[in-house]
Design goal:
Layout: E1 3-7, E2 10-13, E3 18-25, E4 33-39, E5 46-51, E6 58-60, E7 68-73, E8 78-83, E9 92-99, E10 111-112, E11 116-121
Parallel strand pairs: 2-11
Antiparallel strand pairs: 1-3, 3-8, 4-5, 4-9, 5-6, 7-8, 9-10, 9-11
Length: 122
């Protein structure tokens, strides 16, 4: 079983950039599909991006394409989300998640981190 810990959230001005990270322990990180989700106050959690365990295949929510980039370092057991051109509506708690399998479009993830707050000021 994998444990996930996010870090790197904070306050950033609109138009700025921020990167969040998720460190994994336990399990076999290199075999997990990793995903990022977010949840804004009063809203449901939404999918942001996912990355395959090998080959670097990525999948993004349409609203994130071109602004967000997901990447991973299997040696460091870490997945990253680089965010640019941030907007106030990107304010949310950002969660990383892990699942086995190869399908990066599946939204069901059994393992979750505790989340990190990202706040974008206008």
């Amino acid at each position: 079983q994998v444990q996930l810990v996010e870090s790197g959230g904070g306050l950033v001005q609109a138009g700025g950039s921020l990167s969040v990270s998720c460190a994994a322990s336990g399990g076999t990180f290199s075999t997990y599909v990793m995903g990022w989700f977010r949840q804004a106050p009063g809203k449901e959690r939404e999918f942001v991006a996912a990355i395959s365990w090998i080959g670097g295949r990525t999948y993004y929510a349409d609203s994130m394409k071109g602004r967000f980039t997901i990447s991973r370092d299997n040696a460091k057991k870490t997945v990253y989300l680089q965010m640019s051109s941030l907007k106030p509506e990107d304010t949310a708690v950002y969660y990383c998640a892990a699942r086995t399998g190869a399908d990066i479009t599946t939204m069901t993830y059994p393992f979750w981190g505790q989340g990190t707050q990202v706040t974008v000021s206008s």
